[in-house]
Write a structure and sequence with these properties.
about 40 residues; 2 helices
Length: about 40
């Protein structure tokens, strides 16, 4: 797990995001990273 991903998870947990919201946000960031690596 990358440092940025871990930090994002920690912040979402501290802010009491639901587990499903965390999964959705992490998936969105992953897809965004994939998109920009292909551009």
């Amino acid at each position: 797990m990358t440092t940025l991903r871990q930090k994002m998870i920690e912040e979402m947990t501290l802010r009491e995001f639901s587990p499903r919201t965390q999964e959705a946000y992490l998936r969105a960031v992953t897809e965004l990273a994939k998109y920009y690596n292909q551009s």
